[in-house]
Specification:
This protein is an alpha+beta fold. It contains 27 helices and 21 strands. The protein is globular and about 70 Å long. The chain binds aspartic acid.
Length: 720
């Protein structure tokens, strides 16, 4: 059956013509695995055949790769041991840390299986198969359908298909992904593991060495890796955490190559890249540049500063904020990189050129003009609307995510409303298949709640919203803003009067109907209940825009295909992709040439003893003793720390295995360079560089510095 699906899937790229391939040893493209046969990777340096990489009827390399929440990981032993990034396991490490037992700061090694720490709300999925369901999805819509209805119909059909597939494939999880907006949909089947545990993490001073100063930068000296383990029920089925569960046995695991990879070696990555926007129009880029990205930068930089201040004096507060600060800081710096990239590169100018030529091509023929003539203008009108309403919409949305108490209240009230609908009509988090996880996440978030910081954040957001004149379009908000009381006192009264930090109260609330919630007298819940209809309309407006854009982009694809038949690779959408290239340096600016391997000596040189350049004594001692084991670069005579390569990656490729030509693990991807942040919009070999931690550093830190030799044994790596 899966073989059948594979054949049917080829339809979707065929529809849009073939992909064009260059000869630089790297190409733009996070290629779906259905494209393996067409990529001719052997000509690029690959020693495996497409069937070695993916073969739905037999065991192949893809069986050794998994998705770990929003990241990627690989199985490195037959007992479900997973390697991924430190920043991917960060949430689990943070949640298990207290000021007295600070796993973040000290690192963590489980000496036995019993010592491994459950990572609540982590899931692992392994791709088992896929099939094209475009026709089935699109048969749910009619050309005249209003746009909101269109999105709702597509959503519902996707959910129906998922439910059906899960019935037919007991024990697997099904998800329908949109490959080309409004055109192509693929149903993926996953093994879905719900018991994941933390096995090993280096101290954060290794795992995030260089902190935000070095994030998105090269050279890099960060040991951004951790080990986790997948568990199942004793009969091999997926199960929630239980002490009786046993390690998962993947169909195959990947071989670790302790010799690593060196400059100009061919490498490839498998992984689950999250989101790119390369198929979008000029009007989208303008919206990003003038509205969304600058707002994100301002809002996130401010929140990070407030959280840092709150945590400076009290380690337990710093631990509570650590995960959130880290992810906001990551996006804030990436957004700055993208803004700079949009200014520095010719992406906007060349989009403008392309669209001019496309429009001229469309206008040159009356039938084409009739069909496609107003497409670009119609797409632009959606982004114009988003631009004119952007300040209010983005700040109003931020209010219910940055103010943690309001976000808890939203989830509780939204759940009460949505759970009263039939399962398939609910918003995704409240469907039966997802609800336990939604609640688990809510509780974890509540455990990290720090009311004092939340008061500061709520005050700041209300202040910002008060300067946006259109706030009057949200009457309960403008009423709140016009109260004659100092804003910080107002925020403090709301937060301090709320019982949402009390898990017993939250449990009670989760059992209540919307009407009962309205009677709880909790000030934050009461405020959310007033604001809720406006959040609901905004969600509907977003769906309406999605419906319209989906339809327009789908038609735009046809026009582009008629114009230039050969250049479409679907944007990243968190489904399994392959990308390839070489270990290679680059020149970010005139007269600067960066080489592609950093070393332990660089770690020592950067170490100041002051955050974020603190190096644990254990690392310095082993360095001084020259106790490198076999993990030395043949030419540099040092333990290599990180490598740079010209593949095409984005967020979600965090934790992706970096393989050599034989499909052996030589590194773990964790980042891109600052210049490469822009490749979410457009890829270019001259600036697109990804960064991975070198497997030699992983093995040295794990086996020699922190003496977790049992993990090296488990990976069948001998030190002598
Ligand atoms: N470090 C990155 C991230 O957090 C990975 C990437 O985007 O390349 O998303």
């Amino acid at each position: 059956m899966l073989r059948n699906n594979l054949v049917r899937l080829c339809f979707y790229v065929a529809l849009f013509g073939c992909i064009s391939f260059g000869s630089s040893g790297a190409d733009e493209g996070m290629f779906p695995i259905s494209e393996l046969g067409r990529l001719q990777l052997n000509k690029k340096g690959m020693e495996l055949t497409p069937n070695d990489l993916f073969n739905p009827d037999q065991v192949s390399l893809v069986d050794g790769i998994c998705r770990v929440n929003g990241c990627t990981g690989s199985f490195v032993s037959k007992n479900g041991l997973i390697i991924t990034n430190h920043h991917c396991a960060f949430d689990a490490i943070q949640k298990a840390s207290t000021a007295a037992n600070d796993l973040l700061q000290n690192g963590f090694t489980a000496k036995t299986l019993q010592d491994e720490v459950p990572a609540s709300n982590y899931t692992v999925r392994i791709t088992e198969g896929y099939s094209d369901v475009s026709e089935k999805v699109l048969s749910a819509v009619t050309p005249s359908m209003p746009f909101l209805e269109r999105t709702q119909a597509i959503d519902k059909r996707r959910k129906e298909l998922e439910q059906l597939a899960e019935k037919e494939n007991k024990g697997l999880r099904a998800e329908v992904a949109e490959m080309f907006a409004g055109k192509t949909y693929v149903l993926f089947l996953y093994t879905y593991i719900k018991d994941v545990r933390l096995v090993f993490a280096p101290p954060v001073s290794v795992g995030a060495f260089g902190g935000e100063a070095d994030n998105w930068e090269w050279p890099r000296h960060t040991g951004d890796f951790s080990f986790m383990r997948a568990y199942t029920a004793p009969d091999g089925s997926s199960a929630e955490y239980s002490p009786n569960n046993v390690p998962y046995h993947p169909k195959r695991h990947v071989r670790v190559a302790p010799q690593g990879a060196n400059e100009e070696d061919f490498v490839f990555l498998l992984g689950y890249p999250g989101r790119t926007v390369r198929q979008k129009t000029l009007s989208f880029l303008q919206y990003e540049q003038s509205v969304r990205l600058p707002t994100v930068v301002e809002l996130y930089a401010w929140q990070i500063q407030e959280m840092d201040k709150a945590g400076a004096e009290d380690r337990s507060v710093a631990i509570k904020h650590a995960s959130r600060t880290k992810s906001l800081a990551n996006v804030e710096k990436r957004s700055r990189g993208q803004l700079l990239g949009l200014k520095r590169t010719s992406i906007i100018a060349s989009k403008e050129e392309q669209e001019k030529s496309l429009q001229a091509f469309i206008d040159a023929d009356p039938t084409r003009r009739e069909k496609y003539g107003s497409l670009l203008a119609e797409i632009a009108s959606v982004y114009d609307d988003m631009t004119s309403k952007g300040a209010l919409e983005l700040h109003f949305k931020e209010l219910k995510s940055a103010c943690r108490a309001l976000s808890f209240a939203f989830t509780i009230y939204d759940a009460a409303i949505e759970r009263s609908k039939p399962d398939l009509e609910r918003e995704t988090p409240y469907m039966n298949r997802n609800f336990d996880q939604t609640i688990q996440q809510l509780k974890l978030d509540i455990a990290d709640w720090h009311p004092k910081t939340d008061t500061t954040i709520l005050t700041g957001l209300l202040n910002r919203l008060s300067t946006i004149p259109s706030n009057s379009t949200i009457p309960p908000l403008s009423r709140l803003l016009s109260r004659r009381i100092a804003r910080d006192a107002q925020a403090a009264a709301l937060i301090e009067g709320s019982r949402l930090g009390d898990s017993g109260f939250v449990d009670e609330c989760l059992k209540k109907s919307p009407e009962e919630l309205a009677k709880t007298n909790d000030p934050i819940l009461a405020l959310m209940i007033e604001l809720y209809p406006h959040y609901k309309s905004l969600r509907d407006l977003d769906k309406e825009r999605d419906g319209k854009l989906g339809k327009l982009y789908g038609t735009l694809m046809e026009a582009k295909q008629a114009f230039q038949p050969s250049e479409f690779v679907p944007d990243a959408n968190a489904t399994l992709r392959i990308t390839y290239g070489r270990v290679r340096g680059y020149s970010p600016a005139d007269a600067i040439q960066k080489t592609p391997v950093s070393t332990l000596q660089g770690v020592i040189e950067k170490t100041t003893g002051v955050e974020p350049y603190i190096t644990p004594k254990a690392v310095i001692d082993r360095y001084q003793a020259k106790d490198f084991g076999p993990f030395v670069h043949p030419k540099l005579g040092q333990v290599p720390v990180a490598i740079l390569y010209n593949t095409d990656t984005t967020g979600g490729n965090s934790g992706s295995p970096v393989f050599n030509a034989k499909g052996e693990l030589v590194g773990v991807n964790f980042d891109r360079t600052f210049e490469a942040t822009i490749n979410d919009f457009a890829w270019n070999e001259s600036y697109s560089r990804s960064i991975g931690v070198d497997i030699r550093y992983v093995l040295w830190i794990t086996g020699i510095v922190y003496d977790a030799k049992h993990l090296l044994d488990e990976m069948e790596i001998a030190i002598k």
